[in-house]
Design goal:
Number of helices: 8
Structural class: mainly alpha
Protein name: No apical meristem-associated C-terminal domain-containing protein
Pfam families: NAM-associated
Helix content: over 70%
Strand content: under 5%
Organism: Puccinia graminis f. sp. tritici (strain CRL 75-36-700-3 / race SCCL)
Radius of gyration: 40 Å
Number of strands: 0
């Protein structure tokens, strides 16, 4: 189970949620992360339950998940600095794989450990929020270096009327605020991926909801029109059938009598067929309902069985721990008399010597 990868995906997804934006509290944010992380753990445990030698993964508390992400973020930030340094020194002919390899070597040299979060780095490095953060950090670093350089140049420069030949300081890196409503200013600093503003995202969501409501209303209107038309057709057919069935055939000629008799037989046959179809439909609905009830019952029984198995497993583990503690206590108790016996034997030897 690649917990860092899942944790990174969920954290990045929640950060990129423009509808919620930065209006959520930290506790709420990590509760959402923890909820999704627990679901992934449960799904993985359920999927691998029957595998040979599989050991069920424990669920982390909220604080542990947050601490794990803090560790991941610390490692990735340090590796990002190494990667940027190598990238700036990249010579022609070198590939991105070469840069990555050298960055790992630099990280190992500076931190004393190997970089093992490639799966996290592979996705986070391309996300707009991560890119904007790294650009902001680079911009701050450049500003500090430039300020220090300007300060040193000012102190070392001689007093003269000659124009200064010091080149102008480069413009600081501009970091776009992703919460701005202007769509033109909501782009990533590095990539081509657009960071959608919170207001724009909410407006888009409202427009989508309005369109969806209109579509649903139109569907309802079409359904109502169809039902009304079907009801009118059924009423007209019922009136026509009633007129045929109540027709007095004694005053008609042979051909007309034969015609109306065929009509009556057709009406009776159709009504019998409709009754059969209604009975068949009711039977299928009843079977479908019974099937769903049976599946729901089996699902509940399965959940209860799994809960009992987990409870039994936890109980057995508790008993094993208690047995181990008792065994340790017994071993300690057995060891104590031996010490006392040795002490008594020593005292007896001393008395005999005297």
């Amino acid at each position: 189970m690649k917990t860092p990868r899942n944790l990174r995906k969920k954290n990045e997804a929640f950060h990129a949620d423009a509808i919620v934006g930065n209006g959520q509290k930290a506790a709420t944010f990590w509760e959402r992360i923890h909820e999704m992380h627990s679901e992934l753990i449960n799904e993985y445990n359920e999927e691998k339950k029957g595998a040979k030698g599989f050991k069920e993964l424990p669920l982390r508390p909220v604080g542990a998940v947050e601490c794990r992400w803090a560790h991941i973020l610390k490692v990735l930030n340090k590796f990002s600095g190494c990667y940027s340094n190598v990238e700036r020194r990249m010579k022609s002919g070198k590939t991105r794989e070469d840069v990555l390899t050298e960055a790992k070597e630099l990280y190992k040299t500076s931190s004393g450990s190997c970089f093992n979060l490639d799966h996290c780095w592979g996705i986070l490095k391309d996300t707009p929020k991560w890119q904007a953060t790294q650009q902001e950090n680079d911009g701050r670093g450049k500003k500090a270096i430039q300020a220090q350089s300007n300060s040193q140049s000012t102190v070392a420069a001689p007093s003269s009327d000659m124009p200064s030949s010091t080149p102008a300081a480069s413009s600081p890196t501009v970091v776009i605020d992703a919460d701005e409503d202007d769509p033109e200013n909501s782009r990533s600093v590095i990539g081509n991926v657009r960071l959608e503003g919170q207001k724009a995202a909410k407006r888009k969501r409202a427009e989508d909801n309005a369109i969806e409501k209109i579509i649903l209303m139109q569907r309802d209107l079409v359904q109502i029109s169809r039902e009304r038309l079907s009801s009118m057709q059924a009423s007209m057919r019922s009136s026509a059938d009633e007129a045929v069935m109540s027709k007095d055939l004694s005053m008609l000629d042979e051909d007309s009598r034969t015609y109306y008799q065929k009509k009556k037989r057709a009406i009776i046959a159709r009504e019998i067929q409709e009754e059969k179809e209604m009975e068949e439909k009711a039977r299928k609905e009843r079977e479908l309902k019974e099937k769903k009830e049976k599946e729901e019952k089996q699902r509940k029984e399965k959940e209860e069985k799994q809960a009992k198995e987990k409870a039994i497993t936890a109980h057995n583990e508790t008993e094993e721990e208690e047995d181990e503690d008792n065994a340790e206590d017994e071993a300690e108790d057995e060891a104590e008399p031996d010490v006392e016996d040795e002490a008594e034997a020593t005292d007896d030897d001393v008395d005999e010597d005297q």
